[in-house]
Specification:
Structural class of chain A: mainly alpha
Order of helices and strands of chain A: HHHHHHHEHHHHEHHHH
Largest sheet of chain A: 2 strands, antiparallel
Shape of chain C: globular
Order of helices and strands of chain C: HHHHEEHHHHHHH
Oligomer: heterotrimer
Shape of chain A: globular
Helix content of chain C: over 70%
CATH topology of chain C: ABC transporter involved in vitamin B12 uptake, BtuC
Number of helices of chain A: 15
Chains: A mainly alpha, B alpha/beta, C mainly alpha
Largest sheet of chain C: 2 strands, antiparallel
Number of strands of chain C: 2
Helix content of chain A: over 70%
Number of domains of chain C: 1
Distance between the termini of chain C: 50 Å
Radius of gyration of chain C: 19 Å
Strand content of chain C: under 5%
CATH architecture of chain C: Orthogonal Bundle
Number of strands of chain A: 2
Largest interface: A-C, 58 and 57 residues
């Protein structure tokens, strides 16, 4: 449900920044209790969901708020993951700094790719980012000594404090990462930058006439989105313990896209649905394929097919995804005072622009 | 003959046409006049099938037009020259004309038909093999009119043909329209902002105001009723 | 020097394949202003079907033609079922739908045919031709590629310039509404355009398959190279697709030859970025007029 509507009904402070922070703290508290109660495996999954959410939030900002499409998001995750893995393996850097570096290097890569991207319209940008997604792994393959070749590099989780189990500790790190990113991005979207993003998305020419520096805004969105992906990739690699090109194929970028679309392009909370889809899909497709008595090799491919179908069906029938649907339900609930539409309301894909 | 009955069209919350009814006779020009936003263009687009109405009926020579798709209506002999002319700039003059003949004429007849139209509009002859983007406003209007006539339509819908044209060119155009209509069974519906020149060539006039028909009378009557003219047509 | 010649010949042969895929993208783009990202994967799927047919003993040329027809059908069906309903909405929707279709095709191929890499037979010898006393890096099969693609290009040009259907297709692409008002059945022509593109895509798939071990993802790079070629040549004309293909083929071949084959994708990316920056706005000509 929209923060604005919830805030009104709970009489929370009206300042959006404060509101976001309070929501995040509340969610953090709930999740802290949750991770303590869940078993190790579930903790692991919750943590993975959080890591994906970090990456998905970036994508949602880029596509939902700013209207740019990227098929290379997985490659930026790879950049962040490799950065952190390299620092971990070759230096004694502080863990937080490693995460920051992963974010920063990925953001820098986003800056580089984002510069030519400012001049590109949808399909052209998609094509360029598609090629980027295919090109990045080839860099790692070209210099196997540095990047660990096929086996890749390993990552280690920093030691858990006290009696906390390592899975719980990792999940909490990832959850904190997700909450921090969500608060920051939510605040950004509420700020004048967010308004600039949306203005550029809706009509570049009108925006530039209104004084928005269109190219700068687009590059900024690209870089921030890439930074989120880098952080998400780094966090995710802590779960898997390994960073190699096999972890970041083209299909990952497409799965991220599907997860974002299903969750609700342009929303932040909706990205949680997307994360759930990504983490649980392998299980679901395995049980689906055994229901239909397909061979064991078919699992991975069945998951791919489902992601593709999600994209197709969502675009045709439900462009606003789950969160969009929930918002619609909330807005149309039987209630004398209707919930107003949030200024950060997404719905970019379905408006005929 | 064109019979429009109780036609209502809305775009979301905006009611563009409300219960519009009128007839257009063959061998005559029926002018549809009114201010900007009165619904004149919407009316033509509904007749040719580009817009689906909420309710009402449109019948031509006894057959219903509503519910059919645009191409089918065109192939029934309805030629709509839309607002903005609709010249296909990337095609040559000849290709624009030829395009309109593809569904109704056999290959041998097409060249002859194109030649006839170019005789009607000799200004277009030198541009025959040139891209239509090179034509001036008046020449483009001739091209689209020629393109509309080449298929020997029975119903001709013209949306503001005089837009952007010099008065002399407009007068020639109107004269040509009248000449093509008289003595034939062609039904012409002429939407115009330039009411004065439209009235000079029409037999019947319909005035729309905010989507409703406010006047439907002989063109002469409308032209001579000064109060009416001033109120709805501004002159 | 002979290395340069080898790379050049290799570049030309590959370039023709990229040109074929570029042609497919151009055909779809002209008809519906959409880039069909699933085009390569569709070609991959039809090539797998050819492989099945060949393993069952169907004659090579029968399989070849049949698979081109299937490619046509897939293309036309995609337009009719998935793309037509999206007309008029945001321009990102069809992009995402074709991406979804890409992975569906790849998933289907993987699920049906499994993961093992396989070899695809070539219609002609793939060893270098003998010119005088030397063997050049251009085989009979490469000649076949050249001829097949040129026939396709020529056929497309003749279709567009000299036939009534071609005129209708061009008109529908330039001005859909006006064409409809002139009695042109635009819907059928859109499907036809996508169907022709499907033929080109299937041809590309068949021409690439013998040169590498082919699995569900083998057309991914070919697609983006074809996209690069289409962008270089401009998305408006078959001739542009051919020129763009040759340029892309040569550049990528030189990068692969002199810098190592692993860097080809990066080279292509750099080429694409240069091409996109060099075009007036990186977008097609008409909206440029709106620039304020």
């Amino acid at each position: 449900m929209e923060p604005a509507a919830l805030a009104r009904s709970l009489r929370l402070p009206r300042q959006p920044m404060v509101r976001h922070l309070l929501c995040a703290l509340a969610a953090g508290a709930v999740l802290y209790v949750l991770t303590a109660r869940l078993n190790q495996y579930n903790d692991y999954q919750v943590g993975e969901i959080a890591a994906y959410v970090v990456a998905l939030v970036g994508l949602s900002l880029l596509t939902g708020a700013n209207g740019q499409i990227s098929l290379g998001h997985g490659a930026f995750m790879a950049v962040g993951a490799y950065t952190m893995a390299l620092l971990m393996n070759h230096t004694q850097t502080n863990f937080i700094l490693e995460l920051a570096a992963a974010t920063g290097v990925a953001a820098a890569a986003g800056l580089v790719l984002g510069l030519p991207a400012t001049r590109l319209k949808g399909p052209y940008l998609a094509g360029m980012t598609l090629l980027f997604a295919l090109a990045v792994p080839s860099v790692a393959d070209k210099w196997p000594n540095t990047f660990g070749g096929d086996q890749g590099l390993t990552t280690t989780v920093p030691t858990a404090p006290g009696s906390l189990s390592p899975e719980e500790w990792l999940a909490q790190i990832q959850i904190i990462g997700a909450l921090v990113v969500m608060v920051l991005v939510a605040n950004l979207l509420w700020s004048r930058y967010g308004r600039a993003f949306r203005a550029v998305r809706d009509d570049e020419i009108a925006a530039s006439l209104a004084g928005v520096h269109v190219a700068r805004i687009k590059v900024m969105a690209f870089a921030i989105s890439a930074g989120c992906a880098g952080l998400g990739g780094a966090l995710l690699s802590l779960s898997t313990g390994i960073v190699n090109t096999g972890e970041f194929p083209l299909t990952l970028s497409i799965q991220l896209l599907a997860a974002m679309v299903l969750g609700g392009t342009g929303t932040l909370i909706g990205m949680v649905w997307g994360g759930i889809l990504l983490v649980y899909m392998p299980q679901w497709s395995t049980s689906l394929s055994s229901d239909f008595n397909l061979g064991t090799g078919a699992n991975a491919y069945l998951a791919t097919i489902i992601f593709g179908l999600v994209l197709i069906v969502a675009m045709i029938a439900a462009p606003n995804g789950i969160q969009g649907g929930l918002r619609w339900l909330w807005a149309h609930r039987p209630h004398p005072g209707r919930g107003g539409s949030d200024a950060a309301a997404p719905i970019p894909i379905s408006t005929g622009k | 003959m064109l019979e429009v009955r109780d036609l209502s069209v809305s775009f979301g919350a905006v009611q563009a046409l409300t219960s519009v009814s009128f007839d257009a006779e063959p061998g005559a020009v029926t002018a549809v006049l009114g201010a900007n936003g009165a619904g004149k263009t919407t009316l033509l687009r509904t007749i040719s099938g580009l817009v689906k109405p909420k309710e009402g009926s449109v019948r031509f020579d006894g057959g219903a037009l509503l519910g059919r798709n645009v191409e089918t209506i065109a192939r029934l002999g309805v030629s709509h020259v839309p607002e903005g002319r609709g010249v296909i700039e990337e095609l040559t003059v000849e290709e624009n004309l030829r395009l309109a003949t593809l569904w109704c004429l056999r290959r041998q007849q097409r060249q002859g038909a194109i030649a006839e139209i170019l005789e009607l509009f000799p200004r277009l002859q030198p541009f025959r093999k040139h891209n239509a983007s090179t034509l001036s406003g008046g020449e483009r209007q001739m091209l689209v009119l020629g393109r509309a006539l080449i298929s020997r339509p029975r119903l001709l819908l013209l949306d503001e043909p005089s837009l952007g044209l010099a008065p002399m060119v407009t007068a020639q155009l109107m004269a040509l329209i009248r000449a093509q209509t008289e003595g034939t069974d062609l039904t012409v519906v002429l939407v115009e902002q330039n009411a004065r020149s439209a009235l000079s060539v029409s037999h019947h006039a319909v005035i729309l105001n905010l989507g409703r028909v406010v006047v439907s009378d002989a063109a002469v009557t409308v032209a001579t009723d000064a109060a009416l003219r001033r109120h709805y047509l501004g002159f | 020097m002979s290395l340069f010649l080898d790379y050049s010949l290799n570049g030309i042969a590959n370039g023709m394949i990229y040109a074929t895929l570029a042609l497919a993208l151009v055909l779809v783009y002209r008809a519906t202003k959409i880039i069909n990202f699933a085009q390569g994967a569709a070609g991959m799927l039809t090539t797998f079907i050819a492989f099945s047919l060949l393993s069952r003993g169907v004659g090579y040329w029968w399989a070849f033609v049949l698979v081109l027809v299937i490619g046509f059908a897939i293309g036309a069906a995609t337009e009719r079922i998935l793309i037509r309903p999206l007309h008029g909405r945001s321009e990102l929707n069809p992009v995402i739908v074709t991406i979804g279709l890409l992975v569906v095709f790849e998933g289907l191929a993987g699920a049906i045919y499994g993961n093992a890499s396989r070899g695809f037979p070539a219609a002609f010898s793939q060893s270098g031709l003998r010119v005088g006393s030397t063997t050049i890096a251009f085989s009979h099969f490469d000649v076949f590629i050249l001829v097949a693609v040129l026939i396709l290009m020529a056929g497309t040009l003749v279709l567009f310039r000299y036939t009534a259907i071609g005129l209708r297709m061009r008109a529908s692409a330039f001005s859909r509404e006006i064409a409809r008002l002139l009695g042109v059945r635009v819907g059928i022509l859109l499907s036809l355009g996508w169907g022709l593109a499907g033929i080109a895509g299937s041809l590309a798939g068949l021409l690439v398959a013998p040169t590498r071990s082919f699995g569900p993802y083998y057309m991914d790079l070919i697609l983006v190279y074809g996209f690069t070629a289409a962008v270089i040549g401009g998305l408006e004309s078959p001739v542009g697709a051919l020129l763009g293909g040759l340029i892309a083929g040569l550049c990528i071949s030189y990068v692969g030859g002199y810098l190592g084959s692993g860097l080809e994708p990066l080279g292509a990316l750099a080429l694409l970025m240069v091409a996109l920056m060099a075009r007036p706005e990186g977008i097609f000509a008409r909206p440029a007029a709106r620039r304020v």
